[in-house]
Amino acid sequence: MSTEIKAPVFPESVAEGTVATWHKQPGEACARDELIVDIETDKVVLEVVAPADGVIEEVLKNEGDTVESGEIIGRFKEGAAGESKPAEGKKDESKSEAPTEEGKSEAASGDAILSPAARKLAEENNVDPNAIKGTGKDGRVTKEDVQNHVENAKSSGASAAPKPAAGMPEVNVSAGERPEKRVPMTRLRASIAKRLVNAQQSAAMLTTFNEVNMAPIMELRKQYQESFVKRHGIKLGFMSFFTKAATEALKRFPAVNASIDGNDMVYHGYQDIGVAVSTDRGLVVPVLRDSDAMGLADIEKKIVEYGTKAKEGKLAIEDMTGGTFTITNGGIFGSLISTPILNPPQTAILGMHKIQERPMAVNGKVEIQPMMYLALSYDHRMIDGKEAVQFLVAIKEMLEDPARILLDV
């Protein structure tokens, strides 16, 4: 029986999507609930799975094509027996002609053992598929294999030479040659660009700075890290302290926790804090709902959960919808100071940065202290400079004396 393969029903905030990757090709066997195609929207990647055991009968929308909510993108034949892998004959032929290691290496870059998603990820990260050991069926290189290879290369510093910029071809060129590669902007990247430009053009954005002595937080973590891990099964990080400090400060300064809707100012009686997460596809901001009711361990666990989802492209639109305030941490990449851009319709965003030891005057003496610059970008239409400065000072004071967070002083 032939059935239609349809794009998922998009939320109201999403108008259309793009076919990102067909994981199965026409004639290829599929198991029930097996991933067959990814649909990329300007917020998340939505997955479409096989409705039953069978084969892909026809592909109506190719990779890169635009699709609307619920639109037919292909046809599926339920109960039909298909090939376990496409281009079987081609693979056998290559084996018989060249049963050597070189032949195997050449075959590794073909459709027979490199999935479309894996090939796309390998191209984006300038990875040679021949260098990756496939763990999929019949030695197929999966998307996860490529991702693990990229992460291992980063952690081990495998490449001593500087890598080319993302999207640039990694080739040996002669002097005088100037290679270029044109890559279409993904929907997520285009959406990020549009939102950031709109934020700068529509808001009266201003940034105020301060610095915080991280020694008290670092000492607290050192003292209780072992018992915290034993009790909660997760490490105590810095982000949970910043989230709790921001939550308490938002209660004191409601304008910083507000948003602008046309000519209306919307004050929120709750704190939903977005935490910016960097992924291969771009920056996403999942939201910690009701952060006031969350403990440090709850925050840490949720951040790890969101980070894993973001890495695997599994974040749902509900995970990133709303939010009354955002925290972004450029310090993990080495940023010393920056001016973060607002996340509309929010009116403020807090930027964390690199912890750096600096000579500080303490009680008339010079001491070396681990310091971090903080930046608060805010919409001056909604927030006065006095409120912005006092809000940032409140966060600084709570971080330098964590007992303030518990005592609300």
From TrEMBL:
Belongs to the 2-oxoacid dehydrogenase family. SUPFAM superfamilies: CoA-dependent acyltransferases, Peripheral subunit-binding domain of 2-oxo acid dehydrogenase complex, Single hybrid motif. Residues 153-167 have a biased composition (Low complexity). Pfam families: 2-oxoacid_dh (PF00198), Biotin_lipoyl (PF00364), E3_binding (PF02817). It comes from the Bacteria. This is Dihydrolipoyllysine-residue succinyltransferase component of 2-oxoglutarate dehydrogenase complex. Residues 113-150 form the Peripheral subunit-binding (PSBD) domain. One of its GO terms (molecular function) is dihydrolipoyllysine-residue succinyltransferase activity. InterPro entries: 2-oxoacid_dehydrogenase, 2-oxoacid_DH_actylTfrase, Biotin_lipoyl, CAT-like_dom_sf, E3-bd_dom_sf, PSBD, Single_hybrid_motif, SucB. Pathway: Amino-acid degradation; L-lysine degradation via saccharopine pathway; glutaryl-CoA from L-lysine: step 6/6. Residues 74-141, 153-175 are annotated as: Disordered. Its EC number is 2.3.1.61. Residues 2-77 form the Lipoyl-binding domain. PROSITE patterns: BIOTINYL_LIPOYL, PSBD. It is an enzyme of class 2 (transferase). Binds 1 lipoyl cofactor covalently. One of its GO terms (biological process) is L-lysine catabolic process to acetyl-CoA via saccharopine. It catalyses: N(6)-[(R)-dihydrolipoyl]-L-lysyl-[protein] + succinyl-CoA = N(6)-[(R)-S(8)-succinyldihydrolipoyl]-L-lysyl-[protein] + CoA. The keyword Glycoprotein does not apply. Keywords: Acyltransferase, Lipoyl, Transferase, Tricarboxylic acid cycle. Residues 74-105 have a biased composition (Basic and acidic residues).
